[in-house]
Specification:
The chain has about 325 residues and is an alpha/beta fold. Helices cover about 30% and strands about 20% of the residues. The protein has a 5-stranded mixed sheet, with helices on both faces. The protein has a 4-stranded mixed sheet with strand order 8-13-12-11, with helices on both faces. This is Beta-ketoacyl-[acyl-carrier-protein] synthase III.
Length: about 325
């Protein structure tokens, strides 16, 4: 049951014109291909954990509570490979020694995290879960690559989930989750894990090409996969919830690319005025994308209690997920 929401964006804005000074690109080229005109990026004193703490604090305020039984942080840009950032986030929020762990599912992380949090509540492990999608992913994007550098932005979005009845506003409907590891290399950072190591035998001899520390993306096949998988997953979630497309007040799809969002909406036959968009201001913020979008809608007053929302996302893995949500009456703070 959704009981609170919050978001946070780093203060530094990078426009398309800013990027074009260092890349062979232009504002028009980026906008027509992605729908993005600017994005937020972390400075040296900000990181995934910092963003998560700020968003988490706002979600707790929105819920009107000061504690939680568990903290989950979905991120693909962790503070360190070890340990997880969630325990530190819990401590900095004053939540004490609660259960806390990270979850990695790239841009699908928010859907996977919602399902995980719901599972903790359903099994009685927790009554209240603070779930945060937080990303400083621009640190993993090659600033010289015009195919990826304009797409991503940094930020965090958080929700509070509590025990409740399935017919109450705030209830999350059935989930549809999926993956296809055979296509994992379509979107990946090759280095940094145990497969492609930073040094040979611990002697400090570098063995990894510099570009392998950055994201690699096969744009065309990813576009096709994203549209197909999100459309199929969203239809499945609607069927499980016994909703028709006409019942949907808002389609809140992962903000990867405006053309992808619109193509999925067209496949589902969701009218354009019901398609939520904020990618133009924030870019692709991965696991933070959907909660930031919901927070924007709620803060503007466009998302009202009782409205039906269809959530869907697609990302590296490959992974995807969808769910339905009846929006409760939440107070949401603007991120700007």
């Amino acid at each position: 049951m959704l009981r609170g929401i919050g978001g946070f964006l780093p203060p530094t804005t990078v426009t398309n014109d800013d990027l074009s000074r260092g890349l062979d690109t232009s504002d028009e080229w980026i906008r027509t291909r992605t729908g993005i005109r600017e994005r937020r990026v972390v400075s040296r004193d900000l990181s995934t954990g910092t963003l998560a703490v700020e968003a988490g604090a706002r979600a707790l305020r929105s819920a009107g509570i000061t504690g939680a039984d568990a903290v989950i942080v979905a991120t693909t840009s962790p503070e360190r490979l070890c340990p997880a950032v969630a325990p530190e986030v819990a401590t900095r929020l004053g939540l004490g020694t609660v259960a806390a762990f990270d979850l990695t599912s790239a841009c699908s992380g928010f859907l996977y995290g919602l399902a995980t949090a719901e599972g903790l509540i359903a099994t009685g492990t927790a009554d209240t879960v603070l779930f945060i999608g937080s990303e400083a992913f621009t640190t993993l994007v090659n600033p010289r690559d015009r195919a990826t550098a304009p797409i991503f932005g940094d930020g965090a979005g958080a929700v509070v989930l509590r025990r409740g009845a399935p017919d109450e506003p705030g209830a999350l409907g059935p989930f549809d989750l999926g993956s296809d590891g055979a296509l994992a290399d379509l979107l990946a950072v090759p280095a940094g894990g145990s497969r492609q190591r930073a040094a040979d035998g611990g002697l400090g001899h570098a063995t990894v090409p510099a570009d392998d520390w950055y994201l690699r993306m096969a744009g065309r096949p990813l576009y096709t996969q994203a549209v197909d998988r999100m459309s199929q997953s969203a239809r499945s979630a609607l069927k499980k919830a016994d909703w028709a497309v006409a019942d949907v007040d808002w389609f809140a799809g992962h903000q990867a690319n405006l053309r992808i969002v619109r193509a999925v909406a067209e496949e589902l036959e969701v009218p354009g005025e019901r398609v939520a968009v904020n990618i133009d201001r924030v870019g692709n913020t991965l696991a933070a994308s959907v909660p930031l979008l919901l927070n924007d809608l709620a803060a503007r007053g466009d998302l009202r209690a009782g409205q039906r929302v269809l959530l869907s996302a697609f990302g590296a893995g490959l992974s995807w997920g969808s769910a339905t949500l009846v929006w409760p009456g939440l107070r949401a703070e603007p991120v700007d």
